[in-house]
Amino acid sequence: MTLGEQLKKLRAEKGLSQPELAELASIEQSYLSKLENDKSLPSNEVFRKLLRAFSLSVAQLLEPLDTNYIKNNLLVISDIEQLYQQASTKKLNQQRKLLYVASSLIVVAVTLFYIGYAKQVFNETLYEYSSKGVVLAGEPSDIFRQWRDLIDIKDRNEKDEKMRKIKVTMAQRSDVLIKMTFENKGYSFEEEVEGGRRFFRKTKHEKQLRAVNAWLQVLGVLLLASGIMGFVLERRLFKLIK
């Protein structure tokens, strides 16, 4: 639809004759006839008069018109050019925002997939640490293994008797505690507890799958697909703007 056809259609919808619309818009009937037959284009001032006569905005009047027709024929009218520039700017801003979101999704997707694949954040090695009991103040950390070395008695019988007594005492103090953790705390570590401290020694480690790593990879793939789709949509929007 051309601008002339739109003016003629709007006049018919309002039930106005050419002389009546010309008088309402304060323009010559002959000039209106040229406009309706697309033999002339209105100046910006006349265009505004027609808008007032129809009680329409620029966007409402142009809505049925083809975008290419507007770009090729009507941008000489200042109000239409301004409206088109505003619309183009809005679409370009939307395009930039879509590009930013799509790029961000891809960056996050790759990061999440790598975290899940490399298993560096959520380690899949399960470590077992064992503590034989509570170490009292002043005692060496590994007292439950080293207590025999602390008996400095030369007399054999006296030493054996002392060892038997300490052995009974250490057996009574024995309170094995096992800790399983995905954190590698080294060969050994200590923790403060009520009455003293516990000395933990690494006893073994084993591989154990963690669902969080698989989910991170799945989420990464989904976000990557969303980011790529965002670029596809951006290209379509860009073509529409051009």
Uncertain ranges: none
- What overall geometry do the principal axes of the alpha carbons give? rod-shaped
For the record, the count of structural domains works out to 3
| Structural class computed from helices and strand pairing | alpha+beta
Q: Biggest β-sheet: count, sense, barrel?
A: 5 strands, antiparallel
What's the N-to-C terminus distance? 21 Å
Total helix count? 10
The total strand number stands at: 5
Question: Could you give a short description of this structure?
Answer:
This protein has 242 residues and is of the alpha+beta class. 60% of the residues lie in helices and 13% in strands.
Provide an overview of this structure.
Strand 4 and strand 5 form a beta hairpin. Helix 2 packs across helix 3 and helix 7 packs antiparallel against helix 10. The protein is 60% helix and 13% strand. The longest helix is centred in the middle third of the chain and has 41 residues. It has ten helices and five strands; from the N terminus they run H-H-H-H-H-H-H-E-E-H-H-E-E-E-H. By secondary structure, it is an alpha+beta fold. It has three domains: 72 residues, Orthogonal Bundle (434 Repressor (Amino-terminal Domain)), CATH 1.10.260; 65 residues; 76 residues, no CATH class. Strands 1, 2, 3, 4 and 5 form a five-stranded antiparallel beta sheet that branches.
